[in-house]
Amino acid sequence: MVEIVLEVAAGVAIVTVVVPVVIILLVARQRWWQTIGGKDILLALLENPILVSASISFKANPEKKFSASDESSPERSKWVYIFQKEYATVDPAHVDFVGTDEATTCVGLVIRNQKNGMTSVAHMDSPKIVEMGLSQMLSSLVDSSLETEFDVHLVGGFEEVSLQHSNGSTVSESAAYLDGYSFPLCSKIVHTLWSRDEKFHIRTICVLGHNTRRDSDGNTYPFFNGFVVETASGIVIPAIFDRISRCPDELVRRIRVSASYEDANWNEKLLETYDCGSDCFKIAPCYWTLRQYHIALSLLNYSDSEILSMCSTSPTAEAPDFVDNLRRQWIYLIEHPHWTETFPTKQPRTFARSSDGRWIRC
C-alpha cells in the first residue's frame, strides 16, 4: 500500500502519493484552508483507489450476527451496542466488540487510538451533531502524548436518491451523490476531521456509492446497515444485531433519540451511553414533554405504510421491524408521559455487566 496525503493547492483538494501505509488527513495551516469544502475532500477520498479497494474488502466479509440468546457462558463475547445519535468509547481490556446497526441514511464513525487501542464509535444522524460529537469522542481517546494518531472508519449512508425519478426522468450518478441525506452528513464528517489538529488515518470509507446496491427498477438500498469493531485488532466488519442483543435498555434508548431534539441539554451533541472506566452503561437522562405523548397518540392511528413514509428518511430501505419498533416507543410514551418516571431525580439509568456477560440494572 501507499500513503496518501490529502493536501490543498491553489484552493483545490488534491491527493498526493507519499510513503507506505495509510491515508492521512492533514490540516493546511494557510489562511485559505477554510475555502476547501467537505464535498471536495469527500469526492477525492471516494475516488481514491486504495480506499475503493478497502471498501471492496469490507463488503467481502460475511456479516457477523449478534444474538444475546446464543451465548450464556462466562466466555461469551462482550460487546457494546450503539443506537442512533449515541456514542461510546471502549477499552479493549473490557470489551471484545463495539458496533451499531439499523443505519440507512445515517453514518457510523469509528475513531481508534493507534497506541492503546481505545476505540470510540458513533452513530451519526445529522450534520448538526458532527463537530460537537467529534469533540466528545476524541475527549475520551486523547492521551497525554501530542503524537497520538488515530485510525478512522466510516461505514453507512447510501445513495438514497434513485437514478430513476418517479416521472420517468433519470439523474446522473454525480447528481444522486449530492442529493439526499447521506452526502451532506459524510461531507461534514470528513471536513470536520480535516479541520482539526489531530492526525487521522482513513482506513475505510464504505459510504454512499460504495455502500449502495440497486434492484432491477433502480431503487437503491444499503449493502450493509451495521458493523462492529473487533477491539483487540481494530478490524471493522459488517454486522447485524437482533432485538435482544441491542441492549441494555433498548426501548428507553430509542425514545431518547427523538426526545433529545427537544432537550436543550443535548443540542448538537451525541447521547452519552456508556462509561468506559467502569464498563457500565450509564444511560444519561433526557426529558420529553407532553407534546411527545400527544404525537404518540396520534401516530398510533396510522397504518404501517403511512408510518413508514412519514417517519423514515429512507422508507424502502428500512428493516422489517422498523414500524414495530416505533409503535413500541409510542406505547411506552403513552404509558409514561412524564420523563421523571423513567429518570427519577434526573439520574442516569445504570447497568452493570454480570458474570455471564449480561446487563443487570443497578
UniProtKB/TrEMBL annotation:
GO terms for cellular component: nucleus. It holds the Pfam family N_Asn_amidohyd. One of its GO terms (molecular function) is protein-N-terminal asparagine amidohydrolase activity. The keyword Transmembrane applies. InterPro entries: NTAN1. Keywords: Membrane, Transmembrane, Transmembrane helix. It comes from the Eukaryota. Coiled coil: none annotated. Signal peptide: none annotated. This is Protein N-terminal asparagine amidohydrolase. The lineage of its organism: Eukaryota, Viridiplantae, Streptophyta, Embryophyta, Tracheophyta.
